[in-house]
Design a protein that fits this description.
The protein is of the alpha+beta class and 537 residues long. The chain folds into four domains: 2-49; 88-177, Pdz3 Domain; 193-216 and 229-321 and 330-387, 2-enoyl-CoA Hydratase, Chain A, domain 1 (Alpha-Beta Complex); 395-532, no CATH class. Helices cover 41% and strands 19% of the residues. The chain has helices at 2-44, 51-64, 78-86, 114-117, 139-146, 203-216, 234-241, 289-299, 395-402, 405-416, 430-440, 450-464, 468-482, 486-492, 494-510, 513-522, 524-535; strands spanning 71-73, 88-91, 94-97, 104-109, 125-129, 132-133, 153-159, 166-172, 174-177, 181-186, 191-196, 221-225, 250-255, 263-266, 278-282, 304-307, 315-321, 327-336, 367-369, 375-377, 386-387. The strands form five sheets. Strands 3, 4, 5, 6, 7 and 8 form a six-stranded antiparallel sheet that branches. A six-stranded mixed sheet has the order 10-11-12-15-16-21, sandwiched between helices. Strands 1, 13, 14, 17 and 18 form a five-stranded antiparallel sheet that branches. A hairpin with a 6-residue loop joins β3 (94-97) and β4. The longest helix is centred in the first third of the chain and has 43 residues, at 2-44.
């Protein structure tokens, strides 16, 4: 018997060694083939070859075949890596917009940024940077020239939006930190609310201060809004959870091939409050670290999850240095919620239009139990305890947003009005909305209703099937009723367009926080979830 055991062990060792040798041989063979091809191209290709560009194209294609999250950043993109992990970069601190061949348009300076300190405002146009014209540059090229080492200076030739005057403005670059806390306040019935946009370094410390401030203001319940939060650092997710569960609680685990990737992550600090009721809002845009947080609250029965199912990204990325100062963000494992669920979509190839996980048959899912004995399932994303669909937008509204016509009108409004009411009180009048409709008359976008758009398919199908002549009159008559003017289409969609317009305009005066303040007034999904949450045990 002992001999048989040793024989099995020996066979396994030989098999593993052979497998490793085979993998190493395949790698060496592939590298040799690649090197041979590059040498052949260098000598024989008809035109000169830009090998840096060619190699980067090959690297990107290679990594894309693995998953969408394994990405290579060459040395010149180090600012993107810093922004991804810390939310910090060196620059002037403003969102910009640039049409092909045009000037750089300041659309949204960040609060207390160098841009604001230098007097740059929404609607100002930068026509030259350090004496060199921006005309003919891409938006990325102009943006790269605006960025730089903190403490360095950049000179802009600016045409002021409100006066048309041309000025030369010198801006001293700073380390720009984008806070992940978009907004916090007290809602009805002493409910504290905080909106979190990401999980970069330091977010949890900010949140600790926010939660303490909300409790000091009388918050007896707490909403953590993670809708649209695409995630970030796992450590920050763990630290967020440590604010609400006992120290030492296991909140997420990971599994991978490399050493150190199989681990349990436990909270390391004392909590602020383990009793305050918590509601976590999620949707299809909530991914990665957001799903770690939502999954832990749900599995530990520490909080209630509301909204719609999350994105379904259960993969962990680690940042690794490469030669020549590059960086590889590589998928190193999968993460699991406390009950053992992996939120990664089972069928990774089939997703919704927004990239989130599609429908998963029950036969492909597995059941898990929460700390309190409730049944939860895997298969992709976190399914809320309280499911309430978000408002759906019409074709004209989506087209207006996609073509940034709403943003263009918000700039126009800002340039024509010195001030507005505070964000919590600001509303557009009927006359303002009619002015917006007049503005849109000269804009190009798809204002057809969904019904009218579907008529194109009906006509095509009728002609293909030989039914067009027999039903042409009825279809033409129906289409005449559905085919409304651009102005009428915008009036019909007023209730969904007006809140977005008010949000975009308020941001021009009061920065990004104003968007959340305005949106809270119209957030039907949130208030429906709150009502059900308060009624539930």
């Amino acid at each position: 018997m002992i001999k048989k055991i040793f024989a099995v062990i020996a066979f396994a060792a030989v098999t593993l060694a052979a497998s490793a040798q085979s993998a190493n041989f395949d790698l060496a063979k592939s590298l040799d083939i690649q090197n041979s091809i590059l040498k052949t191209l260098a000598v024989n290709y008809v035109d000169s070859v830009q090998f840096n560009k060619l190699i980067n194209t090959g690297i990107n294609a290679m990594l894309e075949s693995l998953d969408p999250y394994t990405v290579y950043y060459p040395e010149e993109d180090e600012d993107d890596v810093a922004m991804m992990t810390t939310g910090i970069y060196g620059g002037v601190g403003s969102l910009i917009k640039k049409r092909p061949g045009g000037a750089v348009l300041i659309t949204e300076p960040y609060p207390d940024s160098p841009a604001v300190k230098a007097g740059l405002q929404p609607g100002d146009s930068i026509v030259a940077i350090d004496g060199k014209s921006v005309y003919g540059e891409t938006s990325q090229q102009s943006s790269d020239r605006m960025k730089g080492q903190p403490g360095s200076k950049v000179v802009f030739d600016v045409v002021k939006g409100r006066t048309g005057a041309r000025e030369q403005i010198t801006v001293k670059r700073e380390r720009i930190h984008l806070s992940n806390i978009e907004n916090y306040c007290i809602l009805k019935d002493n409910i504290g609310y905080v909106s979190i946009t990401g999980f970069t370094k330091g977010m949890s410390s900010e949140l600790r201060n926010v939660v303490q401030a909300l409790k000091a203001q009388g918050a007896q319940r707490l909403i953590i809004d993670l809708r649209g939060n695409g995630g970030g650092l796992m450590d920050e997710a763990v630290k967020l959870l440590s604010l609400f569960v006992p120290k030492g609680t296991m909140v997420v685990s990971s599994k991978g091939r490399a050493n150190g990737t199989n681990a349990e992550y436990r909270t390391q600090t004392d909590p602020i409050d383990t009793q305050i009721p918590v509601l976590v809002m999620i949707n299809s845009g909530s991914a990665s670290a957001s799903e770690i947080v939502a999954g832990a609250f749900q599995d530990l029965d520490r909080g209630t999850i509301g909204g719609t199912r999350s994105f379904g990204k259960g993969l962990i990325q680690s940042v690794r240095p490469t030669s020549f100062n590059g960086t590889l963000k590589v998928t190193t494992g999968k993460y699991y919620t406390p009950s053992g669920r992996c939120v990664q979509a089972i069928d990774y190839s089939h997703r919704n239009e927004d990239g989130s996980v599609g429908a998963i048959p029950d036969s492909l899912t597995h059941e898990f139990k929460t700390a309190g004995g409730r049944t939860v399932k895997d298969g992709g994303g976190i399914t809320p305890d309280i499911v309430v669909e978000a408002e759906r937008y019409s074709r004209p509204t989506i087209s207006l947003a996609y073509n940034d016509i709403l943003g263009d009108y918000a700039l126009k409004y800002y340039l024509e009005h010195e001030s507005i009411a505070p964000a919590a009180e600001f509303t557009l009048t009927d006359a303002d909305y009619e002015d917006f409709i007049a503005f849109c008359e000269n804009q190009t976008f798809d204002w057809r209703s969904g019904s009218d758009a579907e008529m194109d398919k009906l006509v095509e199908a009728a002609k293909y099937e030989g039914l067009w002549e027999s039903c042409k009159d009825e279809i033409v008559a129906l289409r005449a009723k559905l085919n409304i003017s651009k102005a009428d289409a915008l009036r019909l969609a007023k209730d969904e367009i007006k809140p977005i317009l008010e949000s975009d305009i308020a941001v021009k005066y009061y920065f990004q926080k104003a968007s959340s303040i305005v949106n809270l007034r119209y957030d039907k999904q949130l208030y429906q979830v709150i009502d059900k949450w308060q009624q539930a045990k």
